[in-house]
Structures are given as structure tokens and as C-alpha cells.
Design a protein that fits this description.
Blueprint: E1 10-18, E2 23-33, E3 39-49, H1 51-64, E4 71-76, H2 79-94, E5 98-101, E6 104-107, H3 111-123, E7 125-130, H4 138-151
Parallel strand pairs: 1-4, 4-7
Antiparallel strand pairs: 1-2, 2-3, 5-6
Helix pairs in contact: 1-3
Length: about 160
């Protein structure tokens, strides 16, 4: 469902990051109910992870925090998550969670998170909006700050 038909009930802003890649990482989301403006935040960290895993975890945790099927506008600076949702995921699924790499089959990186995200995308109606990272987008900056603060304990 795209375009004028789509009115999000909630906006999900997400970000994840690492100190080193791999290294200690953090993730954060801000979930905003559009009609009321009410917000909920989520944040977490892992001792040894990758940037892409943290970006994905933020999205998964944000969608998991919804109690019922919801129209969601997902707003993230992660091209990996965006392309994964819109382009790669349907192909990976059709190919038994494998991808083509240099003419042969390879495993999908972060398959556990992609499978969970796929389940959540089946439950919710999600439209993806890309924002440029560190471009002064207030919620994206807030998620970035929360994510970085979360992994400080592992540095």
C-alpha cells in the first residue's frame, strides 16, 4: 500500500551504530503515535556486534513493541535496512534464504534478524522512508545519541 492511500498510525524512527565494525554497538528507536503525538523510546546495546545488526535490531524492537497490526512509517538512515525490506527480502525468501554472490549461492548475512523482520512485516503495514544520517533530522539525531550512549558501557 503506497502513496495517498497510506496514512501511518505511528512513525518509527530508528538508528543503530558501532564503535568499530564489529565492536560494541547500540540501537535505539522512537515510536510516535501520529494522532496524539505520544512517544515511546527503546534502547539497547551489545558487546560485540556490527553496524548492520544494530540498525536492524532497532527496527525489529520497534515493531515488536506494537501491540496490534499497525500502519507504520519506518524512518531510518540505513540503506541496508531499506534496500533489504524493499528489494532483497522477497528474493531471499523465494530462494530459501540464500543470495547470489559471484555466481554461487551464499548465506544471507543476519538471517536471524531478517527472518524476524519478515514476520513483523507480515503483521504490520510498513512503508519505508529514508533520511540522510547526521543531516539534522531531529528524531534521527535523537536515536543516534541514544544508541551511542547505550554502548558506552562496553568501551
Amino acid at each position: 500500500m503506497h502513496g495517498a492511500m497510506f496514512t501511518p498510525e505511528v512513525q518509527l524512527f530508528t538508528d543503530g551504530g558501532c564503535s568499530g565494525n564489529p565492536g560494541p554497538g547500540g540501537w535505539a528507536f522512537v515510536l510516535r503515535h501520529v494522532a496524539s503525538g505520544k512517544e515511546k523510546e527503546g534502547v539497547g546495546a551489545e558487546r560485540e556486534t556490527t553496524n548492520n545488526r544494530m540498525e536492524m535490531t532497532a527496527v525489529v524492537r520497534g515493531l515488536e513493541s506494537l501491540n496490534r497490526p499497525t500502519h507504520v512509517e519506518l524512518i531510518t538512515d540505513s540503506v541496508y535496512v531499506g534496500k533489504g525490506i524493499t528489494e532483497w527480502l522477497p528474493k531471499w525468501k523465494a530462494n530459501g534464504w540464500r543470495r547470489r554472490e559471484k555466481g554461487r549461492w551464499a548465506e544471507v548475512k543476519n538471517e536471524d534478524l531478517w527472518r524476524r523482520l519478515d514476520e513483523l512485516l507480515g503483521r504490520h503495514c510498513v512503508e519505508f522512508t529514508h533520511v540522510r544520517g547526521h543531516s539534522g533530522h531531529p528524531e534521527n539525531e535523537r536515536c543516534d545519541t541514544l544508541a551511542v550512549a547505550a554502548y558506552q558501557k562496553y568501551l
